[in-house]
From TrEMBL:
Compartment(s): Cell membrane
Main localization (coarse): membrane
Keyword tags: Cell membrane, Membrane, Transmembrane, Transmembrane helix
PANTHER family: ABC TRANSPORTER PERMEASE YTRF (PTHR30572:SF4), MEMBRANE COMPONENT OF TRANSPORTER-RELATED (PTHR30572)
Protein's UniProt name: ABC transporter permease
GO cellular component terms attached to this protein's record: plasma membrane
Top-level taxon of the source organism: Bacteria
Homology family: Belongs to the ABC-4 integral membrane protein family.
Phosphoprotein found in the keyword field: no
C-alpha cells in the first residue's frame, strides 16, 4: 500500500530550507476534484523523495488541516545569482488553490507583467513606433501614476536595485585587471629591452648601409606589437579553458544552469587593443634606447 506523505509547509520551511516563490502552475493532468495538482522543483522532489503522480498532503500549519494533493510535474526552476548557495524548496499551485490553502484571497507580494512587442500605427506625436523599452517605461509611468498602493519597476530597475554586491565584485575584478595589465606591461618592456639588446648589432649594420631610423623604429614597433598580440592570444586561450572549467565546476556544485564565467566579444576586443597599445609603447621605448647610440657604438667599436 502506498503511504501518503504529509507535509506541513511551515515545518518544511524550518527543516528543509523553505518553500519559495509559490506561483501559478501550468495545467496539470486530470485529478479528482478534491485533490489539487501541484508542481515541485527538482530540489524539493529530491528532498521529499516524490515524483510525478505521488500523493501529498498540504497545510500551512503543522497541525493541519490537511489538503490532499498530487504531484503533477517536477520542474527545474530558474535560479537567480542572488540565490546561489541557498537551498530553497519550491512548490507551485494554481492561484485559487493557493488562496484557499492560505485562507487569504486577493493578496499578492509581487506581480510580474510581460509585455508584448509594440505594434500598430506610430503615434502622431513622434511619427514612429515605440520601442520595447519606451513602451515598458510608459506602462511603468502609468501604473505608478494610478496611486493604487504599489510601486512598479522595470526589469532593468530591479536588476540595478539588487545588484549592489555584484557591482562591488565587478569593481574588485576591474582592480585586479588593472594590476595585471600593469604587471604585464612591465614584463613586456623587459622582454623588448632584452630583444633590443639582441638587435643592437643588426640595427648598427642597418644604419651603416643607409637604412633610415624611421624604418628601424617601424621594425621594432612591429616586433613589439606582434609579441604583445601573441601573448594576448595565448592568454585568451588559457582564459577560455579556465572559464569552461569554472562553469563546469560551479554548475555542478550549485546544481544550476547559471553562467559564472563568460568571455564576451567586447572583452576580446579590449584585451587585443590594450595588448597592441602596450606592445607599441614598449617598442617605442626599445627603439629609443637602441637609436640613441651611434652606429659604430652599436657595433661595439
Amino acid at each position: 500500500m502506498r503511504s501518503q506523505m504529509r507535509i506541513g509547509l511551515v515545518c518544511a520551511f524550518l527543516v528543509l530550507g523553505g518553500l519559495s516563490r509559490i506561483a501559478v502552475s501550468r495545467p496539470a493532468p486530470a485529478v479528482p476534484p478534491d485533490v489539487w495538482p501541484v508542481s515541485l522543483g527538482e530540489r524539493a522532489a529530491h528532498r521529499l523523495g516524490v515524483g510525478p503522480g505521488d500523493p501529498l498532503d498540504l497545510s500551512v500549519h503543522p497541525a493541519g488541516p490537511w489538503q490532499p494533493a498530487r504531484v503533477a510535474q517536477v520542474y527545474r526552476p530558474v535560479r537567480y545569482p542572488t540565490e546561489v548557495g541557498r537551498e530553497p524548496l519550491e512548490i507551485r499551485l494554481h492561484l485559487p488553490d493557493l488562496q484557499a490553502l492560505a485562507g487569504r484571497g486577493d493578496e499578492a507580494d509581487s506581480i510580474v507583467i510581460r509585455l508584448r512587442p509594440p505594434g500598430g500605427p506610430a503615434p502622431a506625436r513622434t511619427g514612429r513606433a515605440a520601442t520595447a523599452g519606451e513602451a515598458t517605461a510608459e506602462v511603468v509611468t502609468r501604473l505608478n501614476a494610478s496611486s493604487l498602493g504599489f510601486r512598479a519597476y522595470t526589469s532593468a530597475e530591479l536588476a540595478a536595485r539588487n545588484s549592489g554586491p555584484f557591482e562591488v565584485i565587478a569593481r574588485f575584478h576591474r582592480a585586479i585587471g588593472a594590476v595585471t595589465v600593469l604587471a604585464s606591461s612591465i614584463f613586456l618592456v623587459a622582454i623588448m629591452t632584452l630583444r633590443g639588446e639582441e638587435l643592437r648589432r643588426q640595427v648598427g649594420v642597418m644604419r651603416l648601409i643607409g637604412v633610415s631610423p624611421r624604418t628601424v623604429v617601424g621594425t621594432v614597433l612591429v616586433i613589439a606589437a606582434g609579441v604583445a598580440l601573441l601573448g594576448s592570444a595565448i592568454g585568451i586561450g588559457f582564459g577560455y579553458l579556465l572559464s569552461l572549467a569554472i562553469n563546469a565546476y560551479y554548475r555542478s556544485l550549485f546544481d544550476t544552469d547559471l553562467v559564472f564565467s563568460r568571455i564576451t566579444p567586447r572583452l576580446l576586443e579590449t584585451s587585443a587593443g590594450v595588448s597592441a597599445l602596450l606592445g607599441i609603447a614598449a617598442g617605442a621605448v626599445t627603439a629609443w634606447r637602441v637609436l640613441r647610440r651611434g652606429p659604430l657604438e652599436q657595433l661595439g667599436r
